[in-house]
Design a protein that fits this description.
single chain, about 280 residues, alpha/beta, TIM Barrel, 13 helices, disordered N terminus
C-alpha cells in the first residue's frame, strides 16, 4: 500500500513539474518565431569598444543593421519613467560614473558618455527610430523594476514600431505581464544555471531552482527559452527541447565553435566579439 501511495505521489509530482515547465505550444506563434530563427543577433548591437562603438549605443545598432544582423538590446527605466537602453543597473562600467539608473533622471544620464566615446545612453525610442524595422529585435526587459511601470512604458514605444520584435526577460513576472496584457507579443524566458558558483547572486535556493529548472514557465509560458550556451544539461531543458520541441536561443555565443554548436541544435544565435556568417 505504501509503495502504491509513493508511486502515485511521485507520478503526481512528476506530472506537476511537467506541466510547470511547459512552454506556449501554439503552432501559429511558433511559425511567427521563424523570422528570428533565421537570423544572427548582435548582442547589445555590433559593438567594438576599441573602435569607439560601445555596447547598446546607436552606433552599435547602426552597424548591426547595416550588416544585416538582428539586434539584441536591454531596456531599463529611469527615475522619471523613461525607458532607456542600458544593460547594467549602475552606469559605472559603461560610463565611469556611479549612478543607479532607476534613481537617476534621464537628463542626468544623458550628460554621460559611453566608454570614453562621444556616444550617449540612448532612449529606447531613439533606438527604435534608428533601427526602424530594418532587422528583427530581441528586447530584454530588465528585472528589478516595477513590472507595472516598465512593461507599459516599453509597449507604448512599440505600438507603432514597423519591424519584427520579441521580448525576453529573466523575470517571469515581466513575461506574465505581456502574457496577460499584450498576448500577441512573442516572449522568451531567459535563464542559466543559477547554482553555478560564478553566477551566484545570492538568491534563495527555491528561487535558484525555479529559475534554473524553468519552473517559472508556469507563469510566463514562453514561446522560446533563451539559455546560457554553457549550461544546458538539466532535465527540464531536455524535456523542453526533446518533448515539447521548444525553440531555444543560445547566449552569449563568442566563437565560431560555439556558433556551430548552437547551429547544430537549431538555436537562435545571440553573438558577441566576432563576425559570424549572416
Amino acid at each position: 500500500m505504501k509503495l502504491k501511495i509513493g508511486a502515485v505521489l511521485t507520478a503526481a509530482a512528476g506530472g506537476g513539474l511537467f506541466f510547470a515547465v511547459a512552454p506556449n505550444g501554439d503552432k501559429t506563434r511558433r511559425r511567427r518565431l521563424r523570422v528570428f530563427q533565421c537570423r544572427r543577433f548582435a548582442h547589445r548591437g555590433l559593438h567594438d569598444r576599441e573602435s569607439g562603438v560601445p555596447e547598446n549605443s546607436l552606433a552599435a545598432f547602426e552597424k548591426a543593421a547595416d550588416a544585416g544582423y538582428g539586434i539584441e538590446l536591454d531596456v531599463r527605466l529611469t527615475k522619471d519613467g523613461i525607458p532607456i537602453v542600458i544593460h547594467d543597473e549602475n552606469t559605472m562600467r559603461v560610463c565611469g560614473a556611479d549612478h543607479i539608473v532607476a534613481d537617476t533622471s534621464f537628463a542626468e544620464l544623458r550628460a554621460l558618455t559611453l566608454s570614453g566615446s562621444e556616444e550617449k545612453i540612448p532612449s529606447f525610442e531613439e533606438a527604435l527610430e534608428r533601427i526602424n524595422g530594418r532587422v528583427p529585435l530581441i528586447i530584454e526587459v530588465k528585472n528589478g523594476h516595477d513590472t507595472a511601470a516598465i512593461c507599459p512604458a516599453v509597449m507604448r514605444k512599440l505600438y507603432l514600431y514597423p519591424g519584427f520584435y520579441c521580448v525576453q526577460s529573466f523575470s517571469p513576472f515581466v513575461l506574465k505581464w505581456f502574457r496577460d496584457h499584450e498576448p500577441n507579443v512573442l516572449r522568451g524566458q531567459l535563464s542559466f544555471d543559477f547554482f553555478e558558483p560564478t553566477y551566484d547572486r545570492g538568491e534563495a535556493w527555491p528561487v535558484k531552482f525555479a529559475a534554473s529548472y524553468l519552473v517559472e514557465n508556469v507563469l510566463s509560458r514562453p514561446d522560446y527559452i533563451a539559455y546560457d550556451i554553457h549550461s544546458r544539461s538539466s532535465l527540464p531543458l531536455i524535456v523542453n527541447r526533446k518533448w515539447f520541441g521548444t525553440p531555444f536561443a543560445s547566449w552569449t555565443v563568442r566563437s565560431r565553435t560555439e556558433m556551430e554548436e548552437a547551429d547544430d541544435r537549431g538555436d537562435i544565435v545571440i553573438f558577441e566579439g566576432f563576425l559570424p556568417e549572416k
